[in-house]
Amino acid sequence: MQLDDLYQEVILDHYRHPRCSGELAEGEALVDEENPLCGDHLKLAAHIAGDKLTGVKIQCQGCAICTASASMMAEAVNDLPLADIRKKSAAFLAVLRGERAASEEELGDLVALRGVAEFPLRVKCATMPWHALEAALKRLTP
Ligand code: ZN
Questions:
Q1: Which of the residues 77, 81, 82, 98 has an alpha carbon 20 to 30 A from that of 45?
Q2: 55 alpha carbon – ligand 1 mean position (Å)
Q3: How far does residue 67's CA lie from ligand 1's centre (Å)?
Q4: Confidence (pTM)
């Protein structure tokens, strides 16, 4: 498998048109994560309404893998119950660690990133948005 194979259409589409994306005002971001290995930088804002996470907004400056992962994550978890988000996050991270196979039913568009598991140096690019999400959930649900 070539690195080019990673940049499938769905990844490129999310990279070019990130969902739930925009400038975050000073103090609006819950988390501000950087991946020094690649230069990826992600800020994330969200809040909780009832048992759901809502208003998910990202500001990402990064490579295609990181930006696409952040965009797909934002779209996948916005307005989703927290319990489902935790399940999705655990499933995605396990796939990227190569611990289990990807299921499209469970991960939706995110299965496009499964090939990243073959490239250890890029795994952090794909997982960083999810670690940022988990950090945000910790801040929102003390
Ligand atoms: Zn990256």
A1: 98
A2: 25
A3: 8
A4: 0.93
